[in-house]
Specification:
With about 325 residues, this protein is of the alpha/beta class. The protein is about 45% helix and about 20% strand. It is built from twelve helices and nine strands. Strands 1, 2, 3, 4, 5, 6, 7, 8 and 9 form a nine-stranded mixed beta sheet that branches.
Length: about 325
């Protein structure tokens, strides 16, 4: 049931260190309408939920503040899905528990939404970067400002910054709940907007301070071996769940172009092939490659990954052989 034009949701999981600052920033928004503020905890064990209750009890402003929690941690995507279904605003303006919304964030998002006609939309804005201690990191903006379309997203191209997203509640209510393994819900919300005939819009306005360390999207490979192995398995497993969710959503809507559906299926098969290659011992990679090549996959991407792994193995073999011939000494 929609009672407010906008709901601002603060998503928290084990971020007691930051909750006072983020909640204070949520309370300090300059939006002049009536707003729901939902402080949502995803089964924290560090006292975050208890602190949210205290902060809500101490609020004396004009907005409507509530606290909810998921008893057991279920991950960011499930957390968002459940919080949105429990809130009462037409436009959802979210903020992660370790980021800081700038004072005009809500009013900027509402204004741009209204300028687009107030219909189905997924929006994302420019951002300011900060480190773990909240110090601003000065660097040119790298946020994607171009267009998104169904074919591109079906193929895995989605450059919206989830931390700065705002979206209409129909992107949750018009679909089944997210799959249990989905992590990057922001990569699905824009897809859903286009499926429903809505828009994905970049807002050329810095509306949040984004903490660049920590969080579910901020992991990197340690070296080439890790990149071609464990890290690649983890990355493609995450992207595979994105791709599967997109196909589930497309089938739910039921009116998708057959060519777009084929791209979805190709993307799923490609991630499955990359997981099989990355997770295989070297002797098994040829078998994995031969097993997946006949499928509808991105052969160029899969073959490139295979060749990189073979070249790395050849280089490492030469180094090891030279090391043994040199009596185990370097140089």
């Amino acid at each position: 049931m929609t009672l407010f034009q906008v709901s601002q949701i603060v998503y928290v999981y084990n971020q007691c260190r930051y909750v006072d600052e983020v909640v204070a920033a949520a309370y300090a928004q300059d939006y002049d309408g009536e707003m729901e503020i939902l402080l949502s905890d995803d089964g924290s064990t560090d006292g975050s939920y208890e602190r949210l209750l205290e902060l809500a009890a101490g609020y004396t402003g004009r907005h409507h503040v509530r606290v909810r929690r998921t008893p057991v941690n279920k991950g960011a995507a499930y957390h968002l899905d459940q919080a949105v279904r429990e809130c009462r605003g037409a436009l959802i303006v979210g903020i992660a528990g370790d980021d800081i919304p700038l004072p005009h964030r809500v009013s900027s998002m509402v204004r741009h939404w209204q300028s687009l006609g107030g219909g189905t939309v997924s929006m994302y804005s420019d951002i300011e970067l900060m480190d773990l201690e909240g110090r601003i990191i000065a660097q040119p903006s790298w946020v994607y400002t171009g267009q998104h379309d169904l074919a591109g997203i079906a193929g895995g191209f989605s450059e919206a910054i989830g931390a700065s997203c705002a979206f209409t509640r129909d992107l949750i209510e018009s679909f089944p709940g997210f799959g249990p393994k989905l992590i990057y819900e922001d990569r699905v919300l824009g897809w859903r907007a286009l499926l429903l005939g809505g828009q994905i819009q970049f807002i050329n306005d810095k509306t949040i301070r984004y903490r660049v360390e920590g969080g579910v999207s901020r992991t990197h490979a340690q070296n080439l071996k890790d990149y071609l192995g464990n890290w690649s398995v983890k990355k493609n497993t995450v992207l595979l769940e994105d791709a599967r969710q997109r196909l589930i959503d497309a089938d739910h809507v039921g009116s998708i172009d057959p060519d777009i559906r084929k791209i979805c299926e190709r993307t799923i098969a490609t991630h499955e092939a990359l997981i099989a290659l990355s997770g295989s011992r070297l002797a098994g990679r040829e078998a994995a490659l031969l097993r997946h090549l006949p499928r509808n996959i991105d052969r160029r991407l899969v073959l490139r990954h295979y060749l990189k792994s073979r070249i790395r193995w050849l280089i490492q073999s030469r180094i090891n052989r030279g090391f043994r011939q040199n009596g185990g000494k370097v140089g």
